[in-house]
Amino acid sequence: MDTNGSALTPRSVDESVRPSMAPAAIKIDKDVPIPPSPGRKGNPYPLAQMEVGDSFAAPYSDPTSRWKICKTAHAHGHYYKRKYTTQSLVENGVKVVRVWRVA
To answer: Which of its termini does the chain have fewer beta carbons within 10 Å around, N or C?
Structure first.
């Protein structure tokens, strides 16, 4: 009961406000290819081609880019059941992260 003593009933919906979603109003398309995701650009490092004992050096300019290189190696290793180790070094005057495949 509401404050006036009458029974509560569902509010009527003004159909002129609601857009028409009748099944005939929506067209089904077939064979539309899914475009590539704009967020994923692939892995820029040669992790998939590495064998045990191989390494590469990736230059970095700030702690965030260094972290991304290390995280990418760790995630790739976790997904593909491989092991990598990383180390921050200075090679020829350039700060790099060296990534080794260890298993």
So the answer is: N
Q: Which helix (H) or strand (E) holds 87?
A: strand 84-91
Q: What whole-number distance in Å separates Cα of residue 77 and Cα of residue 48?
A: 9
Tell me the residue type at 20: S
- For 21-77, how does the pLDDT look when each residue is reduced to its tens digit (9 = 90+)? 666 788 888 999 988 777 666 788 999 999 999 999 999 999 999 999 999 999 999
User: String of b and e for 23-56 (b: at least 16 CB within 10 Å)?
Assistant: eeeeeeeeeeeeeeeeeeeeeebebeebeeeeeb
pLDDT in tens, 53-67: 999 999 999 999 999
Q: How many CA atoms lie within 13 A of 8 on its CB side?
A: 3
53 phi/psi in degrees, rounded to 5: 100, -15
